[in-house]
Design goal:
Number of domains: 1
Organism: Neotoma lepida (Desert woodrat)
Number of helices: 0
Keywords: Disulfide bond
Main location: membrane
Strand content: over 45%
Order of helices and strands: EEEEEEEEEEE
Shape: elongated
Helix content: under 10%
Membrane topology: Single-pass type I membrane protein
CATH class: Mainly Beta
CATH topology: Immunoglobulin-like
Pfam families: C2-set_2
CATH architecture: Sandwich
Length: about 130
């Protein structure tokens, strides 16, 4: 499982991510709308795995439709092997209280024995200025 925060930053365990704001114009005021954009991949599963997102260990209830607070998308690909890979992208509005939050995703899948498995990504945090 791999988690990344675009455009060019890959999140590794223990690595901090900094979001910075640089105004492009000289306006009287700015409205800042920060969105966390992170991607979680689960590869080569059968049946298709399920991905969930977490903030501070609590499951995020993020819809698949665009909302004011955020949303997520998912894409399933059938590989040449016949196995399935799933990519989930999280778009989440970030608030001041998220500056110390810890985020991660988890892939949930069925095992041949009829049991369920879960693989969690490393946690990542944001540094907000």
């Amino acid at each position: 499982m791999h988690v990344s925060v675009p455009p060019l930053v890959e999140v590794m365990q223990g690595e901090l991510i900094t979001l910075d704001c640089t105004p492009r114009e000289h306006a009287e005021h700015y409205v800042l709308e920060w969105f966390l954009i992170a991607t979680c991949n689960s590869r080569n599963g059968n049946p298709v795995p399920r991905i969930t997102w977490y903030r501070n260990g609590q499951r995020l209830d993020v819809p698949m439709e665009v909302t004011e607070k955020g949303y997520m998308t998912s894409r399933t690909v059938r590989e040449a092997s016949g196995l399935y890979s799933l990519t989930s992208t999280l778009y989440l509005r970030i608030y001041k209280e998220d500056r110390d939050a810890s985020f991660h995703c988890a892939s949930h899948y069925k095992l041949p024995s009829g049991q369920h498995g879960r693989l969690d990504s490393p946690n990542f945090q944001l540094t907000l200025h």
